[in-house]
Amino acid sequence: MSEGKKTTLITAGRDKKWTHGVVNPPVQRASTIVFDTVAEKQQATINRANKTLFYGRRGTETHFAFQDAMVKVEGGAGCALYPCGTAAISNAILSFVETGDHVLMVDTCYEPTRDFCNTILKKMGIETTYYPPEIGAGIRDYIKPNTKILFTESPGSITMEVQDVPTLARLAHEQDIIVMLDNTWAAGVNFSPFEHGVDISIQAATKYIVGHSDVMLGTAVASEKYWDQLREQSYLMGQCVSPDDAYLGLRGLRTMDVRLKQHAENSLKVAQWLAQRPEVDHVRHPALESCPGHEFFERDFTGGNGLFSFVLKTTNPKATTALLDGMDHFSMGYSWGGFESLILANEPKSFNSLRTVANPNFEGTLIRLHIGLEDIEDLIADLERGLARYNAVILENAVTA
């Protein structure tokens, strides 16, 4: 981006052709677009793929404004919209594969991404090979003559490994392989996908773009080489979103920089506090050296957010339950990226069904946190009380053993 990141987030998608002179574009709801003349209808038909009112599923001016904004924020040539992040992932892949193709998928991918590969792609006769997130130049050994897509996710889901995306992309492009990235953690602003070799950058805009835990929304921004195919294939598969949701995604961009900075500041303080706790084996926060791939975070990212994990030294489901059940400010819930703090636990055995080649080399329970915008002192106190409950159960077990 030639202008500053904050400026881009404030100004992107505010062209007067979409806003008509007001600060925010109106929410334009439409299915049918009507035309006064045959010539007008023909012109719309010719330009239907180029942000022209044609039919509701092609988009309205509200959608066009959000799409413009996403392209300005991430780069690329165009942005396709989807009803959720999983739809963005699955339809981006489906737009470029056919029976007999091979997909390279990072083993630390989002669980629904793995399920999609193991069910839908398998049923279509498309092979998926899972590769370790830290493979780097070793990806050469995984590439086949029929490899069509290299899919990356950095940091990885749950265990937070940061990938060497530029190296992976360079080697994939040598074989004309399409490089896709789940860029949700960086929210499109803390990792510039097209500057690091990515062809299609995918996000669950549900997370930090919307930022308020009230909308399901997905985006995929593509380079010029792949934009037309992504757009048309996604359209043929019926992908579209509500203009109200597109509006909320656009509105979320305006405050995303300040929200991300506060999330990042809060999470780093919590991570550093946890790193000193006797119950904690290690912390998996990309900004800390204890996180696998930290060197790539330092090199390629411009900031963090609120999502990270830490690993306890032991595994005791009863103690973990005691920790989780009494939290005041951390709620248990899926997703992340909203203003609120969240907590989830993963026992080591749960990774057996989630991983093929990247099973984590630790034995304790992993706790994933999303650090929200609450007072940091309240969050740390809440975790301290939770760990006290955890320790009480561990002590009780030791006494009765």
From TrEMBL:
Pfam family, one: Cys_Met_Meta_PP
Biological-process GO terms, alphabetical: L-cysteine catabolic process to pyruvate; methionine biosynthetic process; transsulfuration
GO cellular component: cytoplasm
Predominant location category: cytoplasm
UniProt keyword list: Amino-acid biosynthesis, Cytoplasm, Lyase, Methionine biosynthesis, Pyridoxal phosphate
Catalytic activity: L,L-cystathionine + H2O = L-homocysteine + pyruvate + NH4(+); an S-substituted L-cysteine + H2O = a thiol + pyruvate + NH4(+)
Cofactor(s) of this protein: pyridoxal 5'-phosphate
The protein's annotated pathway: Amino-acid biosynthesis; L-methionine biosynthesis via de novo pathway; L-homocysteine from L-cystathionine: step 1/1
UniProt keyword Repeat present: no
GO MF annotation terms: cysteine-S-conjugate beta-lyase activity; pyridoxal phosphate binding
EC number: 4.4.1.13
Gene3D superfamilies named among the record's database cross-references: Aspartate Aminotransferase, domain 1, Type I PLP-dependent aspartate aminotransferase-like (Major domain)
Protein localization: Cytoplasm
InterPro entries according to UniProt: Cys/Met-Metab_PyrdxlP-dep_enz (IPR000277), Cys_b_lyase_bac (IPR006233), Cys_met_metab_PP (IPR054542), PyrdxlP-dep_Trfase (IPR015424), PyrdxlP-dep_Trfase_major (IPR015421), PyrdxlP-dep_Trfase_small (IPR015422)
Name of this chain's protein: cysteine-S-conjugate beta-lyase
Organism, scientific name: Vibrio astriarenae
